[in-house]
């Protein structure tokens, strides 16, 4: 980048932008920034591109957002030539798609695989980021784009003696590439979130016994997956421009023409039942959009919760198991809704057993299995579907230091702060894709990723055009954004469940609610306003100019005076 005046040492490789991650976000960043003429280098710890879709290859893994929407929109040619085979794509199909994207747009030369970024430190003397990778190479870049994914750092449960288990043990997000055979095996599964509800029915097909350890039951609505037909694909191709536009300005990044617009309480019981039934039979997240007030009005919410609980009791033959599977102590969809067909019916199989950890807590793992406070449960395999150190884990895993050696890890020790979920005050020229404080966690991830990458690209281009080199969120804008994110969340029922995006208050620490609940479209309009108003809430400055001014004033040529300080 012409404006970046670096004083990089000889053993440092120099580029304009370092991109961390080669999943949806990393791949599109490479494409977009290279298109604008920036020199980029991407890294990924995995041996392949694909990000989350490389790692999460557990049996049953499938996207629960429809494939025709969970896909890139930036290239009409790509959109026209790729043929999705099912309404919800399996992990292997999405991985093939991302590999195709990497090849089709010739992105691989800019990606170094099998390489983890260890640290990224802002060098105040050069005004650039110094990056260290685990192959002991050092890089210098004007900008960093963290395409690390909100759900990429696996989390093991804090169960005593977990390492003593002598059978095979897997975390769903670090599943081996080779096929795992469960025939004749007794398999224990800990965790019943979106991952667990996909995995458990798949395991039940071949395992001798599946023991499901459930701490909190989830609301699971049917997906109703099916093969896509030619005429359906034709319809989408014809209407894609409008559909993609609607996705971008929708609430969740999903086009849903059947989304309800009137309160659940405007209908009588029979009408509501009819509308819920229709949404249930169509399958997918649309059920949550039957009425717009399900997450803001407890009375309305209870009608949806009652409907789903009735379906669970219908589906599960053993009444005790059915009751244990019914969520009762938090509002419907306050935890992320799970979407999968046949989950509840799986518990009718003779080889599947539910252990309700609320009535029978796990005491410890043993070499032979799991001991609860009622029994010893022998197992050959233990699977942890226990989720992620969500939203911040992957970023905290890298030693990121901003101005004055400020550590992101330390700054976020009591929960993340950001401006727009995109930037952090004190960390100039560092961008997070799908960061905490953005709507990403509550949206169609591909739509929010494309939006963030487009924002970053626009910003870098604007800086170049204006003769600027640096952008940094102000502390004040960051505080106001975090307050707004909290205040919006308080208007919903989503704070009434513990989830990977809502940590209730604990030990004197305040509640942390991470995503922006205002919706994808509102967020987009807000970002557009910020940019057109001249990057409100950001300081933009030219490092070289400031350095020269500082040199004249202080006779220290390497000094860097940051605007706004
Ligand atoms: O993880 P989770 P996930 N003892 O955190 C339980 C996305 N995703 O991997 O609820 C016993 O939701 C924990 O119990 P509790 C999607 O955004 C997308 O399932 O804390 N249990 C919970 O049941 C999703 O939301 C797709 O009481 C313990 C489970 O582990 C996100 O990833 C597919 C425990 C963790 O559930 C995360 O989903 C799959 C303990 N000590 C996932 N600790 C798509 O289709 C934790 N648990 C796109």
UniProtKB/TrEMBL annotation:
Its EC number is 1.14.13.92. GO terms for molecular function: phenylacetone monooxygenase activity. SUPFAM superfamilies: FAD/NAD(P)-binding domain (SSF51905). Keywords: FAD, Flavoprotein, Monooxygenase, NADP, Oxidoreductase. InterPro entries: FAD-binding_Monooxygenases (IPR050775), FAD/NAD-bd_sf (IPR036188), Flavin_mOase-like (IPR020946). Its cofactor is FAD. Belongs to the FAD-binding monooxygenase family. This is Phenylacetone monooxygenase. It comes from Cupriavidus numazuensis.
